[in-house]
Amino acid sequence: MRGLLLVVASALFPVALLFAQEVWDQAAESEVNTELNRPELIKRGRYLAIVGDCQACHTRVGGTPFAGGRAMPIPLLGTLYSSNITPDINTGIGTWTLEEFDRALRKGIGKDGRNLYPAMPYESYAKISDGDIQALYAYFLFGVAPVHDTPPPNKIKRALSARWPLKIWNRLFVPSEPFERDPRQSDTWNRGAYLVQALAHCGACHTSRGLAFQLKAYDETEKGFLGGGPVLDGWEAYNITPDPDSGIGAWSAEQLTQYLKTGHVNRLAQAGGPMGEAIQFSLSRMSDSDVAAMVTYLRSIPPVKGKARIPRQQRGTPATEVVILRGTPLGEERNPKLKPDGARLYLGLCASCHGVDGTGSKDGYYPSLVHNSTVGAEDDHNLRQAILQGVRRTVDGEEIMMPGFAGALNQDQLKQLMTYLRGQFAVPENKVEKPAASAR
Ligand code: HEC
Ligand code: HEC
Ligand code: HEC
Fold first, then answer.
1. How many whole angstroms from 120 Cα to the centroid of ligand 1?
2. 354 lines ligand 3 (CB under 6 A)
3. Which one of 7, 268, 397, 409 has the fewest beta carbons within 10 angstroms of its own beta carbon?
4. Tell me: the pLDDT tens digits for 12-41?
5. What is the pLDDT of residue 38?
6. Ligand 3 atom closest to Cα of 269?
């Protein structure tokens, strides 16, 4: 069979060449695009691709940037593989016109007219400006080397695989106009608003979603914007509005800037999981002025009030000798459900880096788990993921690494450990301080 195919194929080869030439000519005809092959535009596009974090999704683990194939689990649907967006003629976007590229980014429609799943964050990209779309196009078509690589086929449940309902979804939910500047606000504010809402798509993770999985708010004028997102892939993106208790209203501008640039502020928060990736591939590589603009905007949006009454990063007290020696969190001795295993697991697995008392290393490289937003959060999703998967991030050539403990803990042990961590390093100070004083 294969032999026969070869024969047919070689017989058709000259025809194929002609055909290929034809495709070339057509592509050349339908694109005014080579006009955009300009060094300064490509350079701008390269920077915008960093801001848009295209690499994080469009690269498989250990693969060439932008060649796609990264598995993305989609709730209810199955697994989707990101597309090859290098300019390869056959497997990438090498024949795409500017209009087609624009339609994919801002309308969620692929070259062949099929609707893209919103795992590609076109709900946010819909607000990208015309000029930035051009620059991105110039970069991807003329500034990226083509890679011949076909992503694996999607594994989507057949009953749910029809893409046409997305047409309706798009019409209902996807913003139809690019970002519009607010003349009452400064240039810095407007730049920050544009980045946060559109290219840097913070809302895609940090804003809650409705029944149809649509974003509930697209900008600061709508209720709930950046007020905390759903759990995606095990991780929760917190409320990052200026509410002092549920959000990050208690953070200074410097702290927020440092977090966005490095993913680490000791005694406050570290970035693991998807946020770690956003910092590594995107935020840490953005210009100082763009980060400053985002900080300005983020600190100005309406606060979203949640259930927290004490900021997550202000919870907890260091463990005292009594806790350490007896292996039982203070004040919990009377809880019959608690076994002392949690504290012992902590001493065995975590204390070498995070300190016996939980305050981390002196230089802060190993962060304090007291006053730590992940330990102190209302829900324990991110704490669980951090323990299971660890943390890995490279910023400015420096690797930050915590090993994952998925293989070392069974479910019961994980629960004991988390109960200890949350009991000791996260309960509001006043609840722990009293028994601590009486125990001495
Ligand atoms: C959060 C993950 C994510 C990010 C960030 C992302 N993409 Fe995508 N993108 C996807 C996925 C997944 C698909 C495939 C969707 C589908 O098949 O329905 C896709 C599809 C595409 C397509 C359509 C390709 C085709 O062959 O149909 C283009 C073009 C594209 N992305 C460009 C970009 C650019 C440019 C950026 C950065 C500005 C970007 N994407 C950022 C996940 C992402
Ligand atoms: C792909 C999803 C995703 C995107 C996009 C994203 N974040 Fe996050 N973000 C998260 C997750 C998940 C966490 C929690 C990380 C952890 O606990 O280690 C987080 C944490 C944070 C925190 C720390 C909050 C705290 O109390 O610890 C800040 C601040 C933040 N993000 C700001 C932003 C900004 C600004 C943007 C856009 C430029 C953004 N994020 C884009 C998922 C995302
Ligand atoms: C080999 C040293 C090491 C060990 C052992 C270790 N950690 Fe970590 N931990 C780190 C480093 C490094 C970070 C990341 C610091 C950063 O992001 O800048 C971290 C971060 C964390 C965070 C914050 C994660 C986030 O996403 O916000 C938590 C929570 C945490 N560790 C808990 C634990 C627990 C619980 C254990 C024991 C099961 C443990 N660690 C064991 C080094 C370690």
1. 5
2. yes
3. 397
4. 343 344 344 444 444 444 554 788 999 999
5. 95
6. 27
Ligand nearest to the CA of 392: 3
Ligand nearest to the CA of 196: 2
Give the separation between CA 185 and CA 188, rounded to whole angstroms: 8
Region 307-326: mean pLDDT is 76
* Structural domains of the chain in order of their starting residue, each with its CATH number: 35-147 (1.10.760), 187-298 (no CATH), 312-439 (1.10.760.10)
Q: Which atom of ligand 1 is nearest to the CA of 101?
A: 29
In short, whether 386's Cβ falls inside 6 Å of ligand 3 is: yes
Contacts of 118 (CB under 8 A, 6+ apart): 108, 166, 169, 213
Residue that wins the pLDDT comparison between 223 and 319 = 223
Q: Is the pLDDT of residue 266 over 60?
A: yes
The CA 408 to ligand 1 mean position distance, Å, reads: 36
**In this structure, which ligand is nearest to the CA of 94?**
1
Q: What's the chain's average pLDDT?
A: 86
Which atom of ligand 1 is nearest to 136's Cα? 35
Ligand 3 mean position, distance from CA 376 (Å): 14
Mutational pocket test of ligand 3: of 205, 313, 391, 409, the residue with most ligand atoms within 8 Å of the beta carbon: 391
**pLDDT of 107-122, one tens digit each?**
999 998 999 998 999 9
